[in-house]
User: What shape does this take?
Amino acid sequence: MRVARKDLRIVIMAATEYDAKRANGDFGFVTEGRSMVVTAVQDRFQRSPFLPLRKVTCSVHDGVLVLRGRVPTYYLKQLAQTIGTSTDGVQQVINDLRVDFPEGG
Assistant: This one.
């Protein structure tokens, strides 16, 4: 899977617009039992045009975000980390994502 830099910019721009709306109170969150940081990261993954990111799980403790799951490329692993790092409240990312290349590719 070859992805252009333009695609990365689109994802980051969409995530940035989402954060701006969130800061202005345009989104309502239900966060019972979930950290606001986890909710923000998961919402950004859900809005990604890259479907494998929608299955990434995360947890946070004292500003340290831990990403878990499987993605098909190292690009998506790095993109997940970039999204996590650029989220308010995240000071460090531990990227435990596994790269499982698709068969035959």
Remarks:
- The chain has one domain: 5-99.
- Residues 24-33 have pLDDT under 50 and may be disordered.
- The radius of gyration is 14 Å.
